[in-house]
Amino acid sequence: QVQLVESGGGLVQAGGSLILSCVVSEDIFNFNAISWFRQPPGKQRDMVAEIRAGGNTNYADSAKGRFTISRTLDKNTVYLRMDSLKPEDTAVYYCHARRGSDMGYLEYWGQGTQVTVSS
Q1: What is the DSSP string of 64-103?
Q2: Distance of alpha carbon 61 from alpha carbon 77, whole angstroms
Q3: Which of 8, 28, 95, 101 is the most exposed place for a label (fewest CB within 10 A)?
Q4: pLDDT digits (tens, 9 = 90+) for 65-106
Q5: Which whole number is the average pLDDT over 5-18?
Q6: Phi, psi of 50 (to 5 degrees)
């Protein structure tokens, strides 16, 4: 079974930085994309950053210019570096993996890690 384990969340002051890690139980190239989603309290879960198998990256408008997604393939780890953090970045952050099959796309989720940004 595919497992994704996040770590690195915590409390940080506005303007500070934080790095999240996602350890994937399989070769990252087995997936079309690895993504970071976040879910603020009382709101829906939305994608903030994505890295595809070929290395192409995409970011939500709210994250572009402040967040950076990267990978270390020998450790099967994907990182999210967050700079210039704002209180509105406070959310549970989830690692997500997606790949295709003859039954369509399969999706996998990590357990989430809490990020709290104080003003």
Answers
A1: TTTEEEEEEGGGTEEEEEE-S--GGG-EEEEEEEEEEETT
A2: 24
A3: 101
A4: 999 999 987 779 999 999 999 999 999 999 999 998 888 899
A5: 98
A6: -145, 140
Please, are residues 78 and 70 in contact by the beta-carbon 8 Å criterion? yes
Considering only CA atoms, which of 50, 35, 28, 30 is closest in space to residue 95? 35
Give buried/exposed letters for 34-64 (b at 16+ CB in 10 A, else e): bbbbbeeeeeeeebbbbbeeeeeeebeeebe
Strand partners, 97: 34, 108
User: Tokens in use for 35?
Assistant: 């993504």
Report which residue type is found at 59: Y
> CA-based angle 15:19:21, to the nearest 5?
155
d(CA 63, CA 58): 10
* Chain segment 29-65, per-residue pLDDT in tens: 899 999 999 999 999 999 999 999 999 999 999 999 9
Q: Say how many Å lie between the first and final Cα of the chain, rounded.
A: 40
